[in-house]
Write a structure and sequence with these properties.
Structural class: alpha/beta
Distance between the termini: 17 Å
CATH topology of the largest domain: Rossmann fold
Shape: globular
Number of helices: 16
Order of helices and strands: EHEHEHHHHEEHEHEEHHEHEHEHEEHHH
Largest sheet: 7 strands, parallel
Number of strands: 13
Strand content: 5-15%
Strand order of the largest sheet: 3-2-1-4-5-6-7
Helix content: 40-55%
CATH class of the largest domain: Alpha Beta
Oligomer: single chain
Length: 399
């Protein structure tokens, strides 16, 4: 039986990559021996509850445990280096350990983490080809000879890091937006395989006056921007509208601190927070909600595409449940939300106000857009994604 490794670095962050990796592992485990590889320790029951998958036939490999076992002093040494440098250095032990798994195929399914393919065959499922930054020297690096040694080491490391994608047989992109930047930054063609979106059948119930946003509590998601926008829309508060924010708090103090600031900002407003919803609970919330807000990419210049929404699963999930999108006009959202047809795209807060109030004041218009929003291109669903990847895996293994 062929052995396949699926690398999803931060499995327990519950992002789009985590979900995609679990869905893919479940499907491929029917035909192959599958290893789901991550930096963090997986909670199999929690993943199954969140994504509605069974991972009983999947094997797991935790890179964090490898690093601790093979370099027990790593944490103390790592703190001497800048964060960007650590993210590269942390790959060397994992790469060597993954070679020991003797995989036939390695599927890279992680954003902003590049690793050479530790297998004879490789598929890079690129979420975005993050541009390389210049990495600063450690502050303690002041002696001339030591500085020269560090500079040489970083240059050699960065060169290997930049060209890691060349060790993969095939690159897929999660959107046309991403594929364009792969060509621009890496000069490689990518096959577009849209991320797996859990399309929700519309519930046979009346919509409530709920504006919804779903996403991890992370500054990149701009929940703070949406709370402030909602604060200034007194007309919505007075007519009974609520803003609901659903997501997970990632491990680490930074995510908890950001979440706590959001709660403070929302004090006194009709804002409701939801945490760790199961797939059934999330579908129920989509079904109740009338409007979907999304702000990732707000305030980001066009020359920083890595900070925009590269595809956007949650707006599509919301649309399939009859929740009309009012989203940021950037990145992959331009491929799924047709402005003025099945939703609206905005660039200024004033436009977010205008489009939202237009729907709130005119239920007939909202109902018309709801009907159009539910007409989702089938390419965006889970099953088309899984079938497309199955074909790609078979072709690469047979090549």
């Amino acid at each position: 039986m062929k052995r396949i490794g699926i690398f999803t670095a931060d499995l327990m962050t519950y992002g789009g990559g985590s979900r995609k990796g679990c869905l893919l592992a479940e499907r491929l485990s029917r035909r192959y021996e599958v290893w789901l590889i991550s930096r963090d320790r997986p909670d199999v029951q929690a993943l199954g509850r969140s994504y509605g998958v069974s991972l009983a036939d999947v094997r797991f490999h935790c890179l964090e445990a490898d690093s601790a076992r093979h370099f027990s002093g790593w944490d103390a040494v790592a703190r001497l280096f800048p964060r960007q440098v650590r993210s590269i250095l942390e790959q060397f032990v994992p790469y060597r350990r993954l070679r020991d798994l003797e995989l036939d195929l390695f599927i890279h399914n992680t954003s902003s983490h590049y690793m050479k393919a530790p297998a004879p065959r490789g598929i890079f499922m690129c979420m975005f080809p993050w541009p390389m930054a210049e990495f600063p020297r450690p502050r303690w690096c002041r002696l001339p000879l030591l500085r020269q040694f560090i500079d040489y080491g970083l240059a050699h490391t960065l060169d290997r890091y930049r060209h890691a994608h060349e060790t993969y047989d095939l690159i897929t992109a999660n959107s046309e937006f991403t594929a364009t930047w792969i060509k621009h930054l890496w000069n490689r063609d990518a096959q577009v395989v849209y991320s797996a979106t859990e399309l929700t059948p519309p519930a046979p119930r009346a919509k409530e006056k709920i504006i919804l946003m779903v996403g991890r509590y992370n500054p990149d998601k701009k929940q703070d921007v949406l709370i402030e926008a909602f604060r200034s829309m007194c007309e919505l508060h007075e007519s009974g509208w609520e803003l609901h924010l659903a997501g997970k708090i990632n491990a680490g103090d930074w995510s908890r601190r950001y979440h706590d600031k959001l709660v403070e900002r929302a004090h006194g407003l009709p804002v409701v927070f939801h945490y760790d919803l199961s797939i059934g609970e999330l579908r129920e919330l989509y079904g109740r909600s009338a409007i979907y807000w999304h702000a990732k990419g707000f305030g980001i210049p066009e020359d920083q595409p890595q900070r925009m929404e590269h595809f956007g699963n949650t707006p599509l999930e919301a649309m399939s449940a009859g929740c009309v999108p009012v989203v940021m006009d950037a990145g992959g959202l331009r491929e799924t939300v047709q402005h003025g047809i099945n939703g609206f795209r905005w660039t200024r807060i004033e436009e977010l106000h205008e489009y939202t109030l237009r729907f709130a004041r005119n239920p007939e218009l909202l109902a018309k857009f709801r009907t159009r929003a539910m007409q989702i291109d089938p390419r965006f669903g889970v099953e088309p994604f899984l079938r497309a990847v199955e074909v790609i895996v078979e072709d690469v293994l047979d090549s």
